[in-house]
UniProtKB/TrEMBL annotation:
Pfam families: Peptidase_S10. This is Serine carboxypeptidase. The keyword Coiled coil does not apply. The keyword Signal applies. GO terms for molecular function: acyltransferase activity, transferring groups other than amino-acyl groups; serine-type carboxypeptidase activity. PANTHER family: SERINE CARBOXYPEPTIDASE-LIKE 7 ISOFORM X1, SERINE PROTEASE FAMILY S10 SERINE CARBOXYPEPTIDASE. Residues 1-21 form the signal peptide. Keywords: Signal. InterPro entries: AB_hydrolase_fold (IPR029058), Peptidase_S10 (IPR001563). It comes from the Eukaryota. One of its GO terms (biological process) is proteolysis. Belongs to the peptidase S10 family.
Length: 426
């Protein structure tokens, strides 16, 4: 029986390989690193869509611990339109750029001692189509939206696992941040319902998902910016109370006939400090991001990564010109369904991220009506409250909610955690 299973799997694998036009390459050296890579890196394309017209590029890094037993993570970067390489080089990957020595020429790499690949296998994908090195073979193939992106990510993962059968039994998590936090529960539900419950092969060992500063409902998320800015002392009590009472808690798309609300919001917008802080953070990050533009657009780099020639005119860390429709307003129902099915969840938020405030994430978590299993408490790394180096405000806290045998853990992380690796102890 067991031999028959592997025979059928082998035949299916041959069929998939023939029809997907997939390609994969093991990379042992990269421009910018003057030695053999101290981790196993694979890059490649996998075709999705009716005729494989969408070619999604990926970077796969094996766990530096025990790749056959450690979990497998599919990392979805935000945007939409930001490359998986951004997550690899600027957030959780095993290498990052040496900013101190960057002079505008080809940048060099340094090793990240806090990489998540120390204990996990990670696929960093360029999704949706048009992101990073991903491309389409037809003009129609470039059109995408939330629903299509989720389905294509599921199709990508299914084909990737068929091409890498040794990882079929690894515990699987869909992870990512920002706008990726919107697509993650959609992909997870595709795996749970469209794949595993429908009996499609291969059966994936989905355990849960991880979302960082996740977009959930854009209007509701944006609505928490003013209460959050007040909590962070960026807005005076007087201005906030005026807005709170006159706008009745609705700060996004206010009633145009509510003159007092519009006046209060105008006063808040005139508080330049808020925007100066955001601008200063952007300037610092744009300087750091310049390294990836120089590196990824270098011809020798693209040859080393086995990029298909002629498929990209220019690599961008975040491609803001992709043809993309935000067709799903809220993914709260996806969180509800996955919670009911008993999947594990970790939600984490940088407590100094105004774009998607931690307060908005807490709101939808509370709306799930789960039982609190572990009360608020500080969490630490190496004996210190996590993120203390960016100390602004209260200590870091974590809270865990229980639904049957599944847990949802929420943690705040000091500063804007999308730019740094967070070792959250759950």
């Amino acid at each position: 029986m067991k031999s028959l299973f592997y025979l059928l799997l082998f035949i299916l694998l041959l069929i998939i390989n023939y029809t997907t036009a997939a390609s994969q390459s093991i990379i042992t050296a990269l421009p910018g690193y003057n030695d053999t890579l101290p981790f196993k890196l694979e890059t490649g394309y996998i075709g999705v869509g009716e005729k494989n017209e969408v070619q999604l590029f990926y970077y796969f890094i094996e766990s530096e611990s025990d790749p056959h037993k450690d979990p497998l993570l599919l990392w979805l970067t935000g945007g939409p339109g930001c490359s998986g390489f951004s997550g690899l080089a600027y957030e959780i990957g095993p290498m990052t750029f040496d900013y101190a020595t960057f002079d505008g020429s080809l940048p060099s790499f340094t090793i990240n001692p806090y990489s998540w690949t120390k204990i996990a296998n990670i696929i960093f994908i360029d999704s949706p189509v048009g992101t990073g090195f991903s491309y389409a073979t037809t003009s129609q193939g470039y059109a995408s939206n939330d629903t299509k992106s989720a389905k294509q990510n599921y199709a990508f993962l299914r084909k990737w696992l068929l091409n890498h059968p040794t990882f079929l039994k690894n515990r699987l998590y869909v992870v990512g941040d920002s706008y990726g936090g919107k697509i993650i529960p959609m992909v997870a539900l595709e795996i749970a319902e469209g794949g595993n419950e429908a009996g499609l092969q291969p059966r994936m060992s989905l355990q849960g998902y991880v979302v960082g500063n996740p977009l959930t409902d854009e209007k509701k998320d944006n609505n928490e910016r003013i209460p959050y800015a007040h909590r962070m002392a960026l807005i005076s009590d007087e201005y906030y109370e005026l807005a709170k009472s006159s706008c009745r808690g609705h700060y996004v798309s206010p009633d145009p006939n509510n003159v007092q609300c519009l006046y209060a919001l105008r006063l808040i917008r005139e508080v330049k400090l808020l925007f100066l802080i955001l601008a200063n953070l952007s300037v610092l990050q744009d300087h750091n991001y310049a390294t990836s533009y120089v590196w990824a657009n270098d011809e020798t780099v693209q040859e080393a990564l086995h990029i298909r020639k002629g498929t990209k005119q220019e690599w961008q860390r975040c491609n803001n010109s992709i043809s993309y429709e935000k067709d799903v307003e809220s993914v709260f129902k996806y969180h509800q369904l996955l919670s009911e099915k008993g999947y594990q969840v970790l939600a984490y938020s940088g407590d100094h991220d105004l774009r998607i405030p931690y307060m908005s994430t807490l709101k939808w978590i509370h709306a799930l009506n789960l039982t609190v299993d572990d009360e608020w408490r500080p969490w630490t790394v190496d004996g210190q409250v996590a993120g203390l180096v960016f100390r602004i405000g209260d200590p870091v806290y974590t809270e865990r909610y229980k639904n049957n045998e599944a847990y949802l853990t929420f943690a705040t992380v000091k500063a804007r955690c999308r730019s740094y690796s967070a070792r959250v102890q759950t």
